[in-house]
Amino acid sequence: MTFERVEIVNFNKRYMKRLEAVTFKYNRTCAAVNATWILNINVGYNLNVVIQAYKFASNEYRLFPMRLQLNACEAINKDVAGLKGYFLQNQLITFCNWSPDQAHLPPFMPNGKYMLELQGLFKTSEIYLLRAYITIYRSIVFKIRLSLNVIKADRYCW
After folding, report:
1. CATH class for the domain made up of 2-156
2. Considering only 15-19, 33-37, 146-150, which range has the smallest mean pLDDT?
3. What are phi and psi of 125, to 5 degrees?
4. pTM of whole model > 0.70?
């Protein structure tokens, strides 16, 4: 998996004073994100994130049948996305050098380029809309080695 970037589409200034996300190269092969935000309200346990996936096909991102909604507090407590943190009112919150962990993503997603749209909701009001771009690929060499081992096993097991 390759993480490309995160972009902020919009955020509601009624609920957030500040939202910034900067994507940069952490090293020669990995991208990382520094994110900063300040909430105007105390969201408590009512912050939900709706994630919709789009797959790149025919030179555009098309709807992919993966949509899920997570409670942000539960996701952080259960380490769903590799995030550790909290949400406080009028406090500067930062994540530094964060990149997604492949172990926390859904298994068996097909190879390809994806755009994940993350919509933050407080009760029924939209707080923010982010887009994250990733590429999922699996090594062909691993698949060939695996198939060769199956062929060798079939030769000796008749």
Report:
1. mainly beta
2. 146-150
3. -100, 135
4. yes
